[in-house]
UniProtKB/TrEMBL annotation:
InterPro entries: Cyt_P450 (IPR001128), Cyt_P450_CS (IPR017972), Cyt_P450_E_grp-I (IPR002401), Cyt_P450_sf (IPR036396). Heme binds at C408. Its main location: membrane. It comes from Anisodus tanguticus. It is found in: Membrane. This is Uncharacterized protein.
Amino acid sequence: MALSLVLYVSIFLIFLCYKLYHRLTAKLPPGPWPWPVIGNLFDIAPVRFRCFAEWAQIYGPIFSFYLGSQLNVVVNNAELAKEVLKDNDQNLANRFRTKPLDNVSKNGMDLIWADYGPHYVKVRKLCNLELFTPKRLEALRPIREDEVIAMVENIFRDSNKPCNKVKVDEQGEELKAIVTNGIKIGGKLNLGEFVPWLRWVFKDDNNALEAQDRRLDKFTRIIMEEHTIARKKTGETKQHFVDALLTLQKEYDLSDDTVIGLLWDMITAGMDTVAITVEWAMAELVKNSRVQQKVQEELDRIIGSNRTINESDISKLSYLQYVVKESLRLHPPTPLMLPHMAGNNAKVGGYNIPKGSMVHVNVWALGRDTNIWEDPLQFWPERFMKEDVDMKGHDYRLLPFGSGRRVCPGTNLAINLVTSMLAHLLHHFVWSLPIGVEVEDVDMMESPGTVTYMQTPLHVVPTPRLPLHLYTHVQ
């Protein structure tokens, strides 16, 4: 027994000495000491970006930690973010993929999780030249406007008859279940992902992953087949993404795996993040009635009360755009961005970043940096009247959509859709908290995961403020 204890202690001390020697000689960023085998896996709080912001107060704006033997580096201010995303853009443009992400991306055959290289350049070109062009987005505008108006009608109907439940078709329910389950699986820090020889221990997680993969693949192929059959019957090519991808598949030499991966990129990156951003903005607006009233005064002045909004009105609603920007500053939907991986050795903040390291940009911390923002915890859209900070990847103080080679290709669409949804919600309704609920009662904590759902879903009460005929959804 004593011999075993001596052996374990010796191994532990040798491990610590090796890590100390490696950190000092390699000049890695400082950080918490890792445990043997597991690294710092169990030191990290569930809401990682908040945990990392706290660690930055201890170790400095750049620090490192280990998941198993995998080195991770986190940067927490705008200067270091610029070094990662601009100065070292190409060196740090790869992706680290866990097993769940390998599955959903078909081994990096999509856009979001692809390593930087010829495949990434090809699918990025497809997105920029085909899927997110002004012409394509304009063609899709009637669909977006129709769906937003349908949302308003559903809210109006439910506010009058709250017992009515909105019916979702079978495919809609399946889509929702797949996305929800995928976020649950992908958001877990699984020891087996970072210590591969322990993966067999996590049998239940492995089985759940395989079942999710089969379910996703089956659902996607059904949708693709439906669209293929519809095109053969009508001879028409519709403007939405599914048909666009299928008709461009041969021209861009895309495999089925790439088409499926890209479709799920559009769904996960375009659906959840928009909904999350709108919910956080609405939470801030019910907590700050002054701001809500000011938005509605702008809407009444520019739109009036005799018609509904269309997307061409958005550019005229400057204060609403400040509200969107302020909400994204405080509540970026992907607060740690998606992890970059070093394809080559790099240097950030004077420290070495070895090839193969994961690099995280704490966007949540950038938006709350007291060295940059006046009263950063205050929801104050007027700050952008003083200085119109870019949020499309050119100003490293505000990076809700990333920057550099990995910047989100759908940035303009996302901003437009969020602003349109908020405009309709605030034009049609006054929003308040339920009776008995105070502003202080609104839970502004995030759920753990890659994207920032509210820990407690927002409950608010809508009161119509326009003539009744403007709540009717005309097909």
